[in-house]
């Protein structure tokens, strides 16, 4: 729905030279039904509680992220991965609001659960940034990576839309970067939460678009540059 805020929201475009694809928290800890959160719920007989989440990851987020990765790599545009989890095996560095979740999912740097899911494995040379907060800028060197790669705009995919994806994108917007959320390559625990988060993000924070639209825009930019 269009609102008066729309006229104050800047136009954000995809440019092959300075638009990064940022993959947020697509890890076994909370991005797979077989480990971490999925294994925890299965052990309790509650895996059905997260069926929406894992079904969306498997049927939409991973396939569309694979398409975006292929397009960004073909265009030689920046690709960056972000992982969430404790920096310490005893979780002593985790803030109270994430401590129990990290511990439950055995999510710390070096654990199997902390790794990116195999379907989205980073290519050699692609930066992998570790954080222990929801927003990546608060606890990682993501801004330094952006500066090193000449990033001016970032396209965000991954989980969860309403927490780490939105949190990182809004932090980036506050730092002067253009931010785009991919509606069909992000996900959370319900359609309602997904839609509300995207609608809220559109109010000054950035742009929301689809996988196919963003790939087409990237390819058009690359063709012009080439």
TrEMBL record:
Keywords of this entry: Hydrolase
Lineage: Bacteria, Pseudomonadati, Pseudomonadota, Betaproteobacteria, Burkholderiales
GO MF annotation: an example: hydrolase activity
Protein name according to UniProt: Isochorismatase hydrolase
Membrane-traversing stretches: none
Keyword Cell membrane: no
Annotated Isochorismatase-like domain residues: 19-202
PANTHER family, alphabetized: ISOCHORISMATASE HYDROLASE, PEROXYUREIDOACRYLATE/UREIDOACRYLATE AMIDOHYDROLASE-RELATED
Record SUPFAM superfamilies: Isochorismatase-like hydrolases
């Amino acid at each position: 729905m269009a609102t008066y805020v729309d006229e104050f929201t800047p136009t954000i475009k995809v440019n092959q030279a300075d638009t990064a694809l940022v993959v947020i928290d697509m890890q076994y800890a909370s991005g797979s039904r077989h480990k971490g959160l999925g294994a925890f719920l299965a052990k309790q007989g509650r895996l059905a509680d997260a069926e929406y989440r894992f079904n969306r990851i498997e049927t939409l987020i991973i396939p569309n992220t694979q398409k975006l990765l292929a397009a960004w790599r073909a265009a030689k545009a920046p690709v960056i991965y972000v992982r969430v989890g404790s920096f310490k095996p005893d979780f002593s560095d985790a803030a109270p609001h994430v401590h129990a979740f990290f511990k439950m999912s055995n999510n710390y740097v070096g654990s199997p659960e902390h790794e990116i899911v195999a379907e989205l494995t980073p290519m050699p040379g692609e930066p992998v940034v570790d954080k222990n907060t929801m927003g990546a800028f608060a606890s990682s060197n993501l801004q330094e990576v952006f500066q090193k790669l000449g990033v001016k705009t970032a396209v965000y995919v991954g989980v969860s839309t309403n927490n780490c994806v939105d949190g990182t994108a809004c932090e980036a917007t506050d730092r002067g970067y253009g931010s785009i959320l991919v509606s069909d390559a992000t996900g959370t625990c319900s359609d309602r939460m997904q839609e509300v988060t995207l609608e809220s993000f559109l109010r000054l924070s950035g742009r929301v678009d689809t996988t196919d639209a963003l790939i087409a825009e990237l390819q058009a930019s690359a063709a012009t540059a080439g």
